[in-house]
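Let's sit down with a protein and look at its sequence and fold side by side. Once you have written the record down, we can walk along the chain together.
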Amino acid sequence: MVRKIKCDCSERTGTKITSLDCFNEIKSFFLTQTKNKIFTSKKVTHPYYVGVGQNEVIEWFADKWYVCNCCGTLWEVNYPDFPAPGFVRKFSDGKYYAKDENEL
């Protein structure tokens, strides 16, 4: 008998990480999904923020990307650096693109 792996990506949304409890819950979720082979960790290749300093281009990269092995959704996770919040963003089509800062 073959066990079919299922995901719940369609029911989940992006979110801001505003507390240590929220961060620990999200981190635990992604670790469990990876351990159960529902998600695969992927190298972060695009910055979520690009700005221009006085003499340089500034790029900020997320800490983790995960790809769902069931539906192909790409998840971007940026850990909080309190008091600055972190975030989780969802790309349902599996393709990364620039998102508005207020869009989760």
About this structure: Residues 56 and 70 are 40 Å apart (CA to CA). The chain has a mean pLDDT of 92. Helices lie at 20-35.
